[in-house]
Amino acid sequence: MERTDSLPGAAVREVKEETGLDVEITGLVGTYTDPRHVIAYSDGEVRRQFNVCFTARVVGGRLTISVESTELRFVEPEEIDQLPMHHTQRLRLRHFLEHRERPCLG
To answer: Which of 8, 12, 18, 100 is most deeply buried (CB count within 10 A of its CB)?
Structure first.
């Protein structure tokens, strides 16, 4: 997030920067925090991970690889289990696909 960003505004900007797509935020899947989820990057930066996960719809743009992505594509929900990802990412996707009435506050 930039200091001038709102949370939804940061999500819209990040999606554009990382995928080339323009999106409109439509809802909230949840907030996800786990003090044990620490990420160490190859450049030496270490962060404690937290996530605010929104739902959105594509309103424009074109799927484009960026310096922060190596592959971009849309997949069917039944393909998700075949994709390599951290278990916390899998949890957020599962919550989205469950169409929960209330956001996760974890």
So the answer is: 12
